[in-house]
Design brief:
The two termini are 22 Å apart. It is globular and about 60 Å long. It is built from ten helices and twelve strands. The strands form two sheets. Strands 2-1-3-5-6-4 form a six-stranded mixed β-sheet. Strands 9-8-7-10-11-12 form a six-stranded parallel β-sheet, with helices on both faces. Helix 1 packs across helix 10, helix 4 crosses helix 5 and helix 5 packs parallel to helix 6. Bound molecules: 2'-monophosphoadenosine-5'-diphosphate (ATR).
């Protein structure tokens, strides 16, 4: 596609942003559908976040993704916050409608779509263990607790943070917070285990967030890490006949949902997935 005067601007703002796979993923999708947008990476220092937001509004950007460290800090600069973003306390997508900036969050729905699509899981009645209690854990908890699961146990190194996430879940389902050493007591009854911590990520790939020998046979194990493609936890899960899923799908689907909000087109999931995998 030629860059003409009617091409609209999309992007991702973060700091640092050099390793983001979003530009490659979105531009591949836009090219494949011949849509008149370009998607760029904006390295925005925290002290210039407000200026960057006003600048993008002023030049008529259609929208952008928001990543670390701006997901929470951007909220006061926006005109409207969706219910999901408000509940999660974080924005990952901004959509500009006639100069008004709407903050949204596609992480929870992105996770849910990837999980169902890739594992074929039926969420109703699942007994869930979520390891970790950061922003990613909040999104996963929000998604699963509203999807009809039986209960959710949140395990985290810092118990107090696990309690905060469990209280988010308690609006929709039974929930409990435990420390990492509480995992052994609960995991035996679980049918879905999700790792949301960074433990096991490159370069420390010989680490696991908990002793994988605790994993029950034949359950679903989901790890939000996608570098490496198969963490030690997922290797061990596979050896126990578990259905496994890594974090690539969540990344692709959260992006696909944003893409659909900006362009109004159904996102080409396979094109996006292949573009990220190639990187
Ligand atoms: P994100 O937004 O990606 O979820 P985060 O908010 O920094 O990132 O959360 C990181 C999560 O990984 C937390 O649950 C953190 O545990 P604490 O709340 O106790 O800090 C967990 N985590 C990170 N490194 C860890 C480690 N070495 N052992 C156990 N948990 C770890």
């Amino acid at each position: 596609m030629d860059i003409t005067a009617d091409v609209k601007l999309l992007g991702v703002m973060g700091h640092p942003i050099g390793h983001s796979k979003s530009p490659v993923m979105h531009n591949a999708a836009l090219r494949s559908q011949r849509l008149p947008y370009v998607y760029l990476a904006f390295d925005v220092k925290p002290e210039q976040l407000g200026e960057a937001v006003q600048g993008l509004r002023a030049i008529g950007a259609r929208g952008w993704n928001v990543t670390i460290p701006h997901k929470v800090a951007i909220m006061p600069f926006l005109d409207e916050i969706s219910e999901e973003a408000d509940t999660l306390g974080a924005v990952n997508t901004v959509v500009c409608e006639d100069g008004r900036l709407l903050g949204r969050n596609t992480d929870a729905e992105g996770y849910l779509q990837a999980l169902v699509e890739e594992t074929g899981i039926h969420l109703e009645g699942q007994r869930v263990l979520i390891v970790g209690a950061g922003g990613a854990a909040r999104a996963v908890t929000y998604a699963l607790s509203r999807a009809g699961v039986s209960y959710i146990v949140i395990a985290n190194r810092t118990l107090e943070r696990a309690e905060q996430v469990a209280s988010l879940a308690s609006k929709w389902t039974e929930s409990k917070a435990v420390g990492i050493d509480g995992i052994g007591k609960y995991i035996g009854d679980c049918t879905l285990v999700v790792n949301t911590t960074s433990v096991g990520m490159f370069p420390r790939t010989n680490a696991s967030p908990f002793d994988p020998r605790l994993l029950p046979d034949g359950i679903v194990v989901s790890d939000l890490i996608y570098n490496p493609e198969k963490t030690l936890l997922l290797h061990e899960a596979e050896a126990r006949n578990c259905t496994i899923q890594n974090g690539l799908g969540m990344f692709v689907y959260q992006g696909a949902l944003a893409y659909e909000m900006w362009t109004g087109q159904v996102a080409p999931i396979d094109v996006m997935r292949k573009a990220v995998a190639r990187e």
